[in-house]
Amino acid sequence: MNAPRENDPSELDRFKRDIDLVDYAQRQGYTIKKESRRGDWHHLVKDDEHVIVTRKGDHQVYLNTGDDRDAGSIIDFAKTRGGDGHGLNLGQVRQQLREYLDGAPAPARQYATQYATPPDTSRLSSLPAGDPEQARQAEEERRTRLISEVLGVKKELTDRSYLHGRGITDETLDNPAFQGRIFTAQQNEHKNTAFPLYNEHGLASVEQKNEHYKSLLPLPKNGIWVSHPTEGKDTPVERVVVSESAIDSLSHFQLKHAQDPKNTLYIATSGTPTEAQVALIQRVIDKQQPREVVLANDRDAGGRQFNINYLNELQPARPMVPVAEQEAYREASRPVEWHATSDKYHTSLKVTFHHDSAEQGGGQVQQLRERVEHINQTQQDGPSLAVEVQRSTEQATIVRLTVARADTAQLEVVAQELYRQREQLRTAVERQQESFLRVDYPLAKDFNKELEYTNQGLSAEQIRAAAQREEQQRESERQQRLAEAQRQEREQRALERQAQRERENTPEAQQERERDDKRFSQAVFGAAVTEAEPRPTRSYRSEQEAQEQTAQFTHLKEAGVVLLKDWMNDNPPPTGRRASEEELTAAPAPRAPAVAVVAQAPDHPGVDKVATWRVDELAPHTTGRAEAWQAVLESDGYIRTSAIRSTVDEQGIRRAEFDMYYRNEQPEIALIHAIVTNTNARAAAGNEKYVGVSVTESEQDRVERQQAAAGATLQPRTGPTREQAAGEAAQTGSGDGAGVERQVLVRVDEVAPPDGARGQAEAVKEALVASGAKASEVQSTTDGQGMRHSEIKVSYRTDQPDAAQVSRALDAVAAQPGSEVVEHASHRVERQETARRQQSLEAGSNRAELTR
């Protein structure tokens, strides 16, 4: 069968008719939360998104309950959710749905699974199609029945106890504005306070509230709670106040109206406003023609998001103009428009500039970038707003701004400036009168909470302080939940690392390491080294030899040097995994170079050299490649690196860099020289694993390192194995050999303690110093989620009398949640063996003392 033409409209109809939208959504990671017995509607959930799938004629349709803009058929569903959330064009949708119907693997995307088998359309075909008019009447009957069950026959407010408990007085409830707008709902002995929602057709739904109870009828959220004017029905309205709940509207009236007694109409949306509700609010404005609209939403991320969108969507009363023998509202032009959305941790603002040329659009984007840069510079904890140009044409430019939910106020500042910019770009006739839209935030989280504090006799300053304490408590609880999630993730990673170590310690893995030792000796040194006579061997005689003889080696392990190509095949650095917004927008401060301890080490005299590694991601919106390269360099302890610094360009490509520290006096300088030289050589040759990787340094440092490498010696292990050496040491005792100094890096992640308070990192340092180790100052940074990341550089000598105590302290720190001890695996085994020997000697001495 020939594939349909790319623009064949019948193919789209076939997709709608033949694809089971519920099955398709499940394959995208959605789960069924609830469904009707007949199977004609389903409630699907993914993350914080709730989708309702129902039947319309001969196909299924969906509705995102949190965004009325997100609705339609399987075509719309695939279009808005494809491309890793960036959307698909119609041609890409056709291709994806063809593959779905044909049973082919789906295009790679986050969370998606492969379509192993073609979808079963039998269930879809068996669903009742029904008559559209009959379905509408049935839905109308259902709505009427549900509302009647709540409000009963006699609609009146007979029980005011709940409202009194929320601080609402009878004087407020008896105002003409609220007569016939609040009722008592009673089912059996249960009584709730009911707030009816209206649209242009009358009653649309009902919200019920009581202590620890809130319910909205399972009906489309296309109505709003609206009061009468405060001076009575049919009086000219001067002001409209929009809030999230009817309780907040009552509280706002009780707190504010006496101070400014304009004739006011109150509107509430019962939570997140839908597109239908925003349209209703605009129609109320068109009809009542108020002089101002007050946005009285909560003082939190959600309330700020609502205000941002109202600034874009609401306008003064629109005039009616004739259109095709009818009348319609005349909309003002929108040279700039925006819309805010949010997830669990972030708020995003999508800004669209409409312009006459690409140059004009570039100027508008540059102006926005400068404003964002100014906001970022004023932030005490560093930049928080991220800007990304998503699409740009001659006629329009789309920009996306993202910030942590806790910093949504910064997006509100941007939206207010966009609002002023749009008014300047409009013609004089279209411009809104100044201060038509006004934001009025409560002193506390919401107006009802402010009313509660006011009724307690608190002053405005005391209310602000109390609200701040509550916010800090909520933030602390959120941070604790986040820390717990991170702790669980660390434990999972620890289990995975343990499993990896167990795999590496199998007899087969040990044999492979021994073979690597042999290959190393033969390839690099040109001759096998006998186990009886370990001898130092020259590593490199020239730059050319470094490139030719050691092009395969960069990764030193205790058993020798492993071929880079073999190691990379087993542990390839990622080409880029999908990055979270936090990862892409975070800008961590570079941590101080790890020189404080090493500078005092007797076996590392000299001066630290610095080479900068630059690692670019290979695909937009990915991360992790630089971290993989850094892990390779740091894993064996003879190379130290700084924190990773990164930026994201307009195409979404992350460009990262970090500094590598070394000394020409190090025994491993020949290997360090090979690492730098061969990395650049392979990148220049186009080796796929080295694309986007480079190492830069001064010419003087390169020459000095080459000279040091040419004269260096490198002695691989050719004597007994570590296990054999440990056994011999246990038999012969600690020996008279001089000890060496070891360095360890301790990392501690914790919820940032209050200013001046002692955190977990300080406690860890104190415990390590008490055990006999040397420790540097705690170096810390705090991220946007309030997590504090600390590092402590620790050193000890293997021959110090209290080495066993130091070892036990390090093991205890490593086992502590939120702490990590970074050290060479052989050094860890060495100190633990030393600790066991010291403990055995102490135990023998104690027994001898008791006997004596």
Automatic annotation (TrEMBL):
Biased-composition ranges, Basic and acidic residues, are 133-142, 467-520, 532-544, 786-800, 821-836
Q: Pfam families per the record?
A: Toprim_2
What ranges does the record give for the region Disordered, renumbered to this chain? 115-142, 464-551, 697-738, 772-852
What domain of life does the native source organism fall in?
Bacteria
Q: Where is the composition biased (Polar residues)?
A: 115-125
Name recorded for this polypeptide: Toprim domain-containing protein
Organism of origin: Hymenobacter luteus
Q: List the top taxonomic levels of the source.
A: Bacteria, Pseudomonadati, Bacteroidota, Cytophagia, Cytophagales
